[in-house]
Design a protein that fits this description.
With 424 residues, the chain is an all-alpha fold. The protein has two domains: 98 residues, no CATH class; 289 residues, ABC transporter involved in vitamin B12 uptake, BtuC. It is 71% helix and 1% strand. It has a two-stranded antiparallel sheet with strand order 1-2.
Length: 424
């Protein structure tokens, strides 16, 4: 039995990323073709939205049916497809690897988007969960720059998200929407989708300006003062928005146009991952690591520690603001109460669960906590007991998170796993 497990594990370890993507594409295509009749045949009321976990919690009697559905649609097709196509996918991966890296990455991203698009196309709930998960990746990555790579503890990201959300929303609603509060649209609505990137960048810049209010006083001090000042900043922003009748105060701002579709959110997430990954691997990222490990030694090595911290903080706030702008336009409504202590706890959980100082860890943490929160939604209040307990266990056995201090090397991701001429 052990020998069989070792052999199977060794075989699957030779599957390149391209092979896993092809397997997942086959699985989601199969779900589109036979998902509904298979679900009905197994006694399920509909296709499971999140791999059967929600159905299992709502109706435990359907646990065998949900497990069988996931095995038939996902596990077996992906396993068989990847196992039988190891040689072909390695050969194709090698051909792509010999071309410019941009082409290979573009092919992998196109396959990933096709998988996500088909998976989310089953129903609107999946689409919403996917969009919010991609936005969570952006927020987690941006906070990891401060709490992971710089080694500080910031609590201000919900405030940055709020500034970005309201900044982008005011831009789009005032210019392109006929609104009761702001009046008639100033520009033709047809121009809106083309101007939407400007709205998101504006939201990021507004968040960066707000970050200066935290960075300038807090980085003159040491220790826990950043956590205290940043937490106060989050409450100040929330209270300020609640008292601004210009944006409807605590009632929230609505009317954001539906321009944050899946391709837009996916593209911005890819850009965010790429830019942040390059940022933490460049000279500035190495300076951040030096500041985190020993600030006095970094200063002795001619690192301008204060400038490095402020640049990283503004950079992190910018991407939190962009994520906030996307968040507001995905929901079509934004409320200051959304950006309070619960949002802070959620984002911090994603960062520390996935792993500090790691782009991989930020992605894993954001996806895990986002999906876990949705999966446990039927348990209502009990999910806020299970998730903290899980985090406590992670902090005990993996204090730095699941995948900490691991660089994202795109070349290693897309390269073949074996010699393409090698036969299985």
């Amino acid at each position: 039995m052990r020998a069989w497990i070792r052999t199977s594990t060794s075989a699957f370890s030779q599957v390149p990323l391209l092979g896993w993507l092809f397997g997942a594409l086959i699985a989601v295509a199969l779900e589109h073709l036979v998902g509904t009749p298979l679900a009905l045949a197994l006694g399920l009321p509909k296709i499971p939205v999140l791999f059967g976990f929600v159905i299992m919690l709502k109706k435990p009697i359907l646990i065998p049916s949900a497990i069988l559905y996931v095995l038939c649609i996902y596990v077996v097709p992906i396993g068989v497809t990847t196992r039988l196509s190891i040689s072909r996918t390695n050969r194709l991966a090698a051909e792509l690897f010999r071309s410019p890296i941009v082409i290979s990455v573009a092919v992998h991203l196109a396959l990933l988007y096709a998988i996500l698009h088909m998976w989310a196309g089953i129903n609107d709930y999946r689409l919403l969960v996917l969009k919010l998960t991609l936005i969570a990746i952006m927020v987690t990555l941006s906070l990891n720059v401060i709490n992971g790579y710089m080694g500080e503890f910031s609590c201000s990201h919900p405030g940055f998200m709020a500034l970005g959300a309201y900044g982008a929303s005011v831009f789009t609603v005032v210019l392109f929407v006929d609104d009761r509060l702001f009046g008639a649209a100033i520009l033709p609505p047809a121009l809106g989708p083309f101007m939407f990137p400007i709205a998101l960048i504006l939201g990021g810049l507004v968040a960066s300006l707000g970050a200066l209010a935290v960075a300038i006083p807090s980085f003159r001090t040491r220790g826990d003062y950043l956590a205290i000042i940043s937490l106060a900043f989050m409450f100040i922003v929330k209270s300020l928005i609640e008292n601004l009748e210009f944006v409807r105060g605590p009632r929230g701002l609505s009317g954001q146009p539906d321009w944050a579709n899946l391709p837009t959110v996916f593209l911005w997430t890819v850009i965010c991952v790429w830019i942040i990954n390059n940022f933490v691997r460049c000279t500035m990222g190495k300076a951040l690591n030096a500041v985190r490990d020993n600030e006095m030694a970094a200063e002795a090595m001619t690192v301008n520690t204060r400038r490095t911290k402020i640049v990283a903080f503004l950079f992190s706030a910018f991407w939190a603001g962009v994520a906030g702008g996307l968040f507001a336009h995905v929901l079509g409504y934004v409320n200051p109460g959304t950006f309070g202590i619960q949002k802070l706890a959620e984002v911090l959980a994603m960062v520390y669960f996935g792993g500090l100082n790691s782009v991989y860890g930020a992605v894993v943490g954001a996806v895990s906590i986002s999906l876990l929160g949705e999966v446990l939604r039927p348990l209502e209040i009990f999910k806020w007991i299970i998730i903290p307990l899980l985090l406590i266990l992670v902090m005990i056995f993996r204090p730095t998170g699941l995948i900490a201090f691991k660089e994202l090397n795109v070349t290693n991701l897309v390269k073949p796993k074996q010699n393409p001429d090698e036969e299985m």
